[in-house]
Amino acid sequence: MLSSLVRVHTPTGYCSGVLIDPYFILTARHFLRHRTAGDMFVFGDHWNRKVSGWIDLATTDISVLRLARPIMEADHPAITPTPLPTAASLPPLTRGTPTISYGMGGGKPQQRPGTIWFKFPQVIGKNYHTRVRHALVIRQPNNPAIPGDSGGPVMVNNQLVGLQSLILDPYGKNLGVATISLINPHLGEIRAAMHRLPPHPGE
Predict the structure, then answer these.
(1) Which structural domain, as residue segments, surrounds residue 107?
(2) What is the value of pTM for the model shown?
(3) N or C: the chain end with fewer CB closer than 10 Å?
(4) Which residues pair with 136 in a beta bridge?
(5) How many domains does one find in the chain?
(6) 194: closest CA among 95, 55, 85?
């Protein structure tokens, strides 16, 4: 299981996320709507942290969270952050390429294999609030994403390519089709958000 997989928890629910460096988490923007940092905790493998703040990306379903205290290798040697991709490291995202999605849906870590179906410029959720710009649609026929997986990392060839965002479940029937928020088109926004988020007081 991916050691960087986390659960973002509030008193009214939880979603998934991924630790990308000792201070920062990526997760699903739609989960953070109407939330405050004061009631939010991030839980990893044998660790937990408060959230000092976050920035939503304006055009897609990604948020950048800053932890109140970092996850340092000296204290947590089993935890390895999953770094942001680079142009050189990004694998081809072609139809039929295998994917592995990770999430906390169901309350425990899950690994969900799939394959790329197609890319789409923009996907809008059924509530019209969630918008994914630069979307990747994947098929997961055997172990599909479920509520709680949102924000979890999606990997191709061991590289982080996106975050779980939406599932296709008309009338409550999960069709095994998931929409992924691609990371690479938004790398500049993500890095800018990391730079703008201030340290926690007393850090």
Answers:
(1) 98-184
(2) 0.94
(3) N
(4) 119, 180
(5) 2
(6) 55
